[in-house]
Amino acid sequence: MARPKPISGFPEFLPAGRMVETRVLDIISSTAELHGLASVETRAVEPLEQLTRKGEIDKEIYVVRRLHAEASDVDQLALHFDLTVPFARYVLENSGHLHFPFRRYQVQKSWRGERPQEGRYREFTQADFDIVGSGTLALHHDAELPLVALEAFGRMHQDLGLPPVLMRLGNRKLAQGFYAGLGIDDPSAVLQRVDKLDKIGPDGVATLLREQLGMDDAQVSAALALARIRSNDLSFADEVAALGIENALLTEGIEEVSSVLEAVSSQFPGQIAADLRIARGLDYYTGTVYETEMVGFESIGSVSGGGRYDALASDGKNTYPGVGLTIGVTRILAPLIGRGHLSANRSVPSCVLVAVDTDDTRTTADDVARRLRARGIACEVAPKADKYGKQIRHAERRGIPFVWFGTSVKDIRTGEQQEADPDVWAPPADDLRPGITTTW
Prior knowledge:
- This protein is α+β, with helices and mostly antiparallel strands.
- The protein is built from 14 helices and 19 strands.
- The protein has helices spanning 15-34, 48-51, 84-94, 140-160, 172-181, 187-194, 197-213, 217-227, 236-241, 248-265, 329-338, 362-374, 388-398, 429-432; strands at residues 38-39, 45-47, 63-64, 77-79, 102-111, 123-132, 165-171, 230-231, 272-275, 288-294, 304-314, 319-328, 342-344, 352-354, 379-381, 402-405, 408-411, 417-419, 436-438.
- The chain is elongated, with a radius of gyration of 26 Å.
């Protein structure tokens, strides 16, 4: 059989890379739970009609069908492209069993059929945080989720050496109110074009606004002027006012950005900034929107985003407004691991390799391993009763720092060996789990 070729857009990590990923997922999950968010998991498929109901993403969807299905009974199912739409369906189905505001986090894979490139993949892991209310949801929750995300990113930076991040804050009400104040009939269409600023630049956006939406030069100039406003303090509001546009929705948006910015920056100064070009491409967002970049790795694009959605979940009688924020785990890790910036200092969880004298004494080695594992020390027994030198080299190749010989344990990095009891001995705390190594 020929060596299989990788499928583009479906990244797989070697064990050392996977260890980095599991540590990141541990940090995300534990941080979410510290903030009282409950873990949920939703199915991988949703009705195709539900997935295409909002936003311009229908060309990215993977459709699912049974190989031997009759044409008449093919279910119109598709793999979810994010975790927000499935979560909205989950809330509607389970609303009678949930206590609102309902606070959830969810870590799962999603799938998109887009062109693979660094930072964008066809299969990827996401971590979502959401808070959903019944009927209403207070604005302070818009500030709460950035606090969760920035705390998680801070722990990744401190504990694992990942780059620091900067979160950028925008608001759909602010932008839509501004465009309405310019006399534009379809503010959402402008938002969709402005959202392409990073991809095609100001001149490209200006061309789209003129040719596709029929905006005049004054309107285009004002729209681009708004998109250039960035500030890590409340001075952004004065810059908006200086553009001379008045609109009630604009005023409401300014107040919301000010409230969120002030609350988050008080705990994470310098890590969040108002950036009025931020719009988000999916049209279910209705207010606050976020995007986050890794400092020094902006070329990867946004590694976290989300916002307020006041009408995504509704059954016609009841509406469940919410705010959500996603961390793109694969988008962060695949480039950093692939470039060699992140790895683990061993390829296995094992801290100890228990040597085997002879095949007849393997049960003794198994007993030592059992006693170490009972105390939370990961270990494995040597696969063969080779000469000790070969068993040591086996440990070295796997990055295992200690080898257990009978009644003693040896640190094979330093050569130091000491008498030890498997019911008492413990490795240094830094060796108990694989360490994460960084190279920048």
